[in-house]
Amino acid sequence: MAATISMVLGEPMHEVQTRILYGDTDAGGVVYNANYLRFFEMGRTEFMRNLASPYKELEEQGFIVPVVESYLRYKAPARYDDLITIKTCLAGLTPLTLRFHCHIVHSETNRLLVKGFTGHASINHSGKLAKLPADIMAGLQPLVI
After folding, report:
1. Confidence of residue 53 (pLDDT cuts 50, 70, 90)
2. Model confidence over 34-44: pLDDT tens digits?
3. 3-state helix, strand, coil in the chain (%, to 5)
4. Distance (Å, rounded) from C-alpha 53 to C-alpha 58?
5. Is 81 a catalytic residue?
6. Measuring CA to CA, how many Å separate 28 from each of 31, 64, 79, 101?
7. Is the dihedral of CA 69, 141, 45, 77 positive or negative?
8. What DSSP string describes 98-120?
9. Which CATH number covers residue 137?
10. Of 26, 81, 82, 135, which one is the catalytic site residue?
11. Are strands 112-121 and 67-74 parallel, antiparallel or unpaired?
12. Spatial separation of the C-alpha atoms in residues 9 and 135, rounded to whole Å
């Protein structure tokens, strides 16, 4: 199944770095698996803030884009105090959905640690599917790889 899941990165891509905190690790001294979803969130939040429109502005217009699907492929562990780079791109867009691809690499060695994607639905504050406005779609469309 994993072989059919595409997680290719393309341009435009946004990169953000962060350092692994002790609280990010488990008893084995490596980053706890679910924490990579937080790193994916950091990547897409900064992607939107720097290349499109901050999520806060979407929320002010009445839209929320929660994660409805995620996939992570773990390739190598990150450890306490490692500096990692989160690379994010927008891989899919419809009026009701967004899909972000993400790679996390060790910043000093460029070794791939995790790759994956998150899928998002566009909903209103009542929790019902709601099409993204035309101006938001127009701003996001050129960013799709």
Report:
1. confident
2. 999 999 999 99
3. 25, 40, 35
4. 7
5. no
6. 9, 36, 9, 28
7. positive
8. EEEEEEEEETTT--EEEEEEEEE
9. 3.10.129.10
10. 26
11. antiparallel
12. 25
